[in-house]
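Quick illustration, no need to memorize.
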Amino acid sequence: MRPVGRRSFIWRAGASALLAGTGLPLALPAGAQGKWPERPVRLVVPLAPGGAIDFVARQCGEVMTRQLGQQVIVENRTGAGGTIGMDSALRSDPDGYTILIANDNAASAPHILKLPHDYTKVLLPVIDIGHQPLVLGVHPSLGVGSLQEYVAHAKANPGVGFASSGVGSNQHVLGGWLAKETGIRLEHVPYRGAGQAVNDLVAGHVKSALLGPTALIPHHLSGSIKIIAQSGSRRAPTLPDIPTFEDAGYKGLVLDVWYAAFAPPGTPPELIKTMNAAFARSLDDPRLRDAFAKGIVEPIGGTPEQLGELARADSAKYERLVRDLGIKPS
């Protein structure tokens, strides 16, 4: 994860200046017609409520509703590891009124599920909203308090189940990667989003989970589950006591998650810039930044081009990992 403001401060400051005013609809750049938005905007979330993508989308939507003077509505379109929601956004009109909020599942799912298209190459990047690590959470009945103890338990009890938010997700990849690096066998238990996965972990129906930290933090603080590791290149500032996988001795086992906005193919470049500026201003809102900090999400921002480079690089990374780890859809 990058420090807040790195590489994006200048862009965000300039984008915010474009949006200075009273929350009226934004004038499009030269060459575009009319104003945006003139009616409600839909943010498509490809996973169920209760997870980090849903959290990020709702925080942005709430702030943008105030700033734009139009409702920004979150719509959860779930199923097939998030591909139903991503496909619906892909097929939407390129008019700025349907925006996909996705994470790097958009980069991993095409390779695991053998899809006919790579979302990172057909969807149009708008903005990199935020980054966070994935975390490994365990139920108290498992009787482990560290990653080393988890690995020892899994070696003695092959087939420990780990929940994820779906087949083809970054969590699915991380589980396969963790198993290979540690020499253990894990059973993947996919859900249609983080919400039900968290509920089943807290209830002890599944004994461990690889998920975004947003939905797990309250249960970790209450003691109903324990977070024992995080996947970032460094410890998240708001999770200073949770070791990374590298801290635990597994060098190179690093996965930083991004959350980003994408537009359907054919969306005019001028409109992409306008939407980028709207999201950039929302990321400067103090209430959003405070909520992101509590949800272990680092606001990023930046240009559409920067997001495009990141997404395509991660697609290549996931293609390699899926191949090398032999990860299958089930």
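The radius of gyration is 19 Å.
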